[in-house]
Design a protein that fits this description.
This protein has 2 domains: 58 residues; 204 residues, MetI-like fold (Orthogonal Bundle), CATH 1.10.3720.10. The chain is mostly helical and 276 residues long. The protein contains 10 helices and no strands.
Amino acid sequence: MTGTVSTPSAGDGRHAAVLRGYARRGPKLVTYGILIVIIVLLGYSLAQLGLDFQRMVRGVSQITAFVDRAFPPDMETLPRLWSPAIATVQIALLGTLLGIALSLVLGALAAANLTPHWSVGFLLKTFFALTRAIPALIWALLFIAAVGLGALPGILALGVNSIGMLGKIFAEAFEEVDPGVIEAIRAAGGNPVQVVLQGVIPQAMPTLVSWSIFRLDINIRYSSILGIVGAGGIGWELQRASRMGDYPSAITVTLVIFVTVYLIELITDQLRRRVQ
């Protein structure tokens, strides 16, 4: 039994070449289109905002004048800055601990494998998104209005703001644990609290600790500026020096903030490496 074998014609070769050309040009056209859209949006934003580049040029001389007035730093104010610097770290630490405690409870209730009802998990995850969307500075203003000035509103602001990130991360970590362990504890008669404490948290512990340390690192930065609105810490010293035009003292406060944040970052980096 014989058959015929078809051979590609010249027309088929040209057609394939055209298709290959389109395939090569397609991604390039998409890239060029995205660039054009970005350029158009950038131009529209510059025109809409009315940015004056001449003001930016004139601002260089003003920055130079500020540097001349601010340096050298006033090191005589350094001794009285240690106490607010320590308070800044304390506010960040207590706010982080509050956020961790609340996130463990709410994260367990929001996890799909632990929540008593899907609507509870949905509402809690929406709450996490809300608290994450509102900056810590806004939370501080709200709590200052509620409880007054001082360290307490700063702690509450950082605690609530931490829930937005930690609650989401904790819930996802709880959802990824081995379901067999959960089923075994439930089969043995364990209640929901025992399931979480004995079956879920031990499995998710590395993730919980790593993200908690990372959140402490973030809260140190936040707490250094919360004092600007009266929520305690060294930020109040920066606000005071700036209002009085005491720029050498303001630079000294800024340097103390930098050193504090940098040292805490070194410590948290070491802790994260040990956990991982």
